[in-house]
Backbone:
């Protein structure tokens, strides 16, 4: 009996780390079969993640150039396609997490994602080697270039879709699957967990740096067919590596998902819409834990109907549990949804900064027109200048954690040095500064191109170093370090432990929405500024367009968003200090 309780507690801890358990007495995932687990499985899991990211992200930095040069898209349409692709990838991450929790389990979903990514990258590679898979070559920016046919675009977009499905299956499940392999009963389990998560995040940052340097350099100097062929081989190795460790993994079977609870609460509340619980009520409410005989709060009171017990004889089993979660929800589920709804306004303020950081496609176009020679014999690839952003993240985060946090904590009295909301605000301001610096840099670059008579010669090099593109990318790195990490910390501090996975899920959804907003902004600006025969701000020939005006517009939108952020913080009030449980209103004694 003791051993069973210990095993149950171990599973609860494992699920709490990943935030997948709704019921503190019964985690949603149960053992399916046990391999050896432990650190021997980490090279297979982390290796799969590293090589998948290199393979799928390795084509992204230069993809705007591939779409323009090989598929004859203009800059605005190419950027819009990439924004939508990013939206699809991040939106499918939520679907992948749900699929693994509720139906297939993490191992099968990661294996499925690896196979999907491999097929997608091979399909994209085929567009570079099979004649007729893309439009015939022609001189760039000539009006008589043949556009891509519907069948050619279908193949291209199908490859993007398969790669998005793969990333959406692998990325949300990989960390959780790695945590499943760790033995929580060992005395040094916390050190092992910390080591795993550190290696995981380090591998993610390393894969981005490799993508923006080595992969970009190969594509620039050896061609698309060789570059995409290398990525196909890397993805094959990623899938092979993961499946090779199959016999070693600890696997768990799916049972339920936290996300389904958020759908159940409003549906059950609507079903019970005829019930009217008073503010001070002695009504009986359904709880998942026996030690919390507490009533739901009065905030968003209409949701409280979902956890009211109408008929204990039909709605509850003899042991007090509910057989049908679509008929009655727990107080914990109701209050969790309320917490999520309260966070939505502050969450929405993070969309604009993600839109600004997502302007890297235009940065690549700028770099192609500038002097990229680091030495007389070495030219930096145009897409590699954005590497400054992840490098700043890798350098700044340990400095902030090890040096600045202890120093600031002595003066602020806060364990993290400064509050999460304050860090988010700093990030928003820095993103506006980065966009303003980018606008100034582009204004200077465009003026120099015109003065040098290059406004009609996009292939010519402006006598201006592309290193001037580094300051905005460096500022973007600091902005992301403050805002993105501040967001996740803030969400973690406000949610109960059982909802910790929603912290990452919210940020992932934010990236997806930001990609959609970015695509919408690009299309609106293109259509609004190209009327009457005028050159669009987002012209493919950026020497004739006004990319600087577009950057200033994004800067102004960022400043408006910062004002909105301040208002949301004021309405939200004080943040919690990282409680493990949600606070509820006590019931009156009968």
Residues:
């Amino acid at each position: 009996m003791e051993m069973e309780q210990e095993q149950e507690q171990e599973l609860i801890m494992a699920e709490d780390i990943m935030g997948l358990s709704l019921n503190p007495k019964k985690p949603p995932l149960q053992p399916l079969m046990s391999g050896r687990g432990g650190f021997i499985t980490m090279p297979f899991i982390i290796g799969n993640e590293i090589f998948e990211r290199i393979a799928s992200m390795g084509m992204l930095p230069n993809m705007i150039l591939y779409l323009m040069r090989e598929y004859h898209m203009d800059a605005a349409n190419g950027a819009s396609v990439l924004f939508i692709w990013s939206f699809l990838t991040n939106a499918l991450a939520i679907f992948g997490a749900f699929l693994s929790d509720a139906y297939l389990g993490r191992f099968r979903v990661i294996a499925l994602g690896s196979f999907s990514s491999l097929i997608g990258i091979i399909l994209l590679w085929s567009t570079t080697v099979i004649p007729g898979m893309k439009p015939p070559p022609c001189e760039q920016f000539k009006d008589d270039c043949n556009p891509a046919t519907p069948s050619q675009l279908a193949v291209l977009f199908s490859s993007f879709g398969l790669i998005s499905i793969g990333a959406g299956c692998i990325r949300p499940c990989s960390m959780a699957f790695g945590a499943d392999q760790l033995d929580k009963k060992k005395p040094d389990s916390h050190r092992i967990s910390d080591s795993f998560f550190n290696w995981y995040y380090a591998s993610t940052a390393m894969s981005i740096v490799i993508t923006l340097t080595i992969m970009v350099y190969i594509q620039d100097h050896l061609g698309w067919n060789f570059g995409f062929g290398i990525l196909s081989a890397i993805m094959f190795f990623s899938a092979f590596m993961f499946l090779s460790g199959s016999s070693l993994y600890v696997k768990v079977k799916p049972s339920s998902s936290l996300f389904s609870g958020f759908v159940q609460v409003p549906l059950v509340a609507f079903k019970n819409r005829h019930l009217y619980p008073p503010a001070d009520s002695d009504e009986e409410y359904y709880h998942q834990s026996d030690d919390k005989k507490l009533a739901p709060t009065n905030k968003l009171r209409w949701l409280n109907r979902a956890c009211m017990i109408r008929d204990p004889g039909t709605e509850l089993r003899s042991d007090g549990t509910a057989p049908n979660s679509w008929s009655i929800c727990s107080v914990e589920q109701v209050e969790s949804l309320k917490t999520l709804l309260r966070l939505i306004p502050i969450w929405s303020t993070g969309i604009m900064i993600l839109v600004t950081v997502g302007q890297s496609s235009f940065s690549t176009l700028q770099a192609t027109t500038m002097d990229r020679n680091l030495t007389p014999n070495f030219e930096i690839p145009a897409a590699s200048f954005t590497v400054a952003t992840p490098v700043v993240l890798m350098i700044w985060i340990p400095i902030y954690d090890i040096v600045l946090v202890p120093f600031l904590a002595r003066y602020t009295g806060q364990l993290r040095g400064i509050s999460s909301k304050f860090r988010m605000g700093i990030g928003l301001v820095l993103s506006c500064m980065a966009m303003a610096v980018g606008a100034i840099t582009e204004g200077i670059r465009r003026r120099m191109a015109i003065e040098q008579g290059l406004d009609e010669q996009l292939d010519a090099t402006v006598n201006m170093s592309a290193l001037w593109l580094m300051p905005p990318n460096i500022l973007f790195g600091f902005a992301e370090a403050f805002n993105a990490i501040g967001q996740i910390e803030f969400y973690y501090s406000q949610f109960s432990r059982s909802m910790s996975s929603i912290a990452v899920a919210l940020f992932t959804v934010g990236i997806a929405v930001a990609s959609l907003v970015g695509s919408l902004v690009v299309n609106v600006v293109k259509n609004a500024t190209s009327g009457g025969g005028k050159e669009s701000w987002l012209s493919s020939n950026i020497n004739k367009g006004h990319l600087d005006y577009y950057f200033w517009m994004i800067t102004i939108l960022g400043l408006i968003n910062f004002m909105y952020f301040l208002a949301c913080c004021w309405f939200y009030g004080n943040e919690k200090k990282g409680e493990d449980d949600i606070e509820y209103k006590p019931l009156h004694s009968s």
Summary: The radius of gyration is 26 Å. Residues 1-34, 577-584, 586-590 have pLDDT under 50 and may be disordered. The CA atoms of residues 38 and 182 lie 5 Å apart.
